Amino acid sequence: MIDIDRVRAETPSCADVLHFNNAGSSLMPLPVFEAVSNALKLEYSVGGYEAERLLGDELRVFYDEFAGLLNAEPEEIAFVENATRAWDMAFYGLPLKAGDRVVTHASEYASNYLALLQQAKRRGIVIDLVPSDAHGQIDLTALEAAIRPETKLIALTHVPTQGGLVNPAVEVGSIARRHDITYLLDACQSVGQIDVDVKAIGCDILSGTGRKFLRGPRGTGFLYVRKAIAETIEPPFIDLLSATWTQPQRYELAGGARRFENFESYVAGRVGLAAAVRYARGIGLPAIEQRVSDLAATLRTQLGTIDGVSVHDLGQVKCGIVTFQKTPLQAKEIAEQLRSQKINVSVSILPYAQLDLGQRGLTALVRASVHYFNTDDEIERFVAAVRVM
Ligand SMILES: *Cc1c(COP(=O)(O)O)cnc(C)c1O
User: What is the CA radius of gyration of the chain?
Assistant: First the structure.
């Protein structure tokens, strides 16, 4: 059981805003805010490099916290400025050549799909889109059937940005293992709201961000790369941290996930993200997962009782993201009206999900995303606000 009074007291802004935009950027809990601001204050008073030295332990613990969160090794974790660049650092470094095939699904994140399109244009890789099953998740039978000798990568988004769907990441992992294909999982919307275990899933690479369900600061992200795979990836960019210039004409890449990092990074952000992971683990991911999915299920049911409202989440398993429309209103108008009442949501639009929203004939959806610190009372207020629009 989560102590809701306590987590709300540690998120003082809960009292001012009704925050259902946790898939966009959540509210930082006080210990995270304090970790970031203390690190910034230290930089302000003693200098950036000197602060980094003093913060040594808090910076190192970042890797241990993520290793604990994801069931990985500290050396398999990199700090990256956001989830997109984390994903890119691995993807663009994979040795894919003309004719190699990448299997993916309509739920893939827009920026990832853009990268696939770019590499199709530049390198001649081929994208195989696996259809959805009746629930709207990646069809496992079709996935297995799509695999050919040229298939070198399965790229999957665990939870898409534009809906409550949770893809069957574990089942995809066993297919990837059976065929010995690299498995790249975008877990940007799942880490922090779902108990994600890289060994149980069987992914080789996993990317995520700090500001969403992990409740970390903006401008932070992370990458997990399985040890044996990291050694086979030559990152698209290297610098004097990710590589060592050993002789005038030679260099050596850093071992493990360090090769995906930048020399210069948001030090206060890394301290803050470590604090965010510690905070989430302190509450417990299984308890978080249960509460988030319960709150979202209630929200879906309640919204469904309103005239003109349609709820659009796909998936056999659904998470904390709830998407809906209310005719004849535009999604943008709904979000604006809510904002004027200090209710935060976001809007998912077609260019963010051409394949998924396009296939469903949708151009925009309101996205309300709940977290464990939200309450049934807030759901009631939210639903009442949508009802009277
Ligand atoms: C938000 C999001 C991303 C990108 O995260 P950034 O930190 O903004 O780069 C990637 N994948 C999914 C599924 C997302 O929702």
Answer: 21
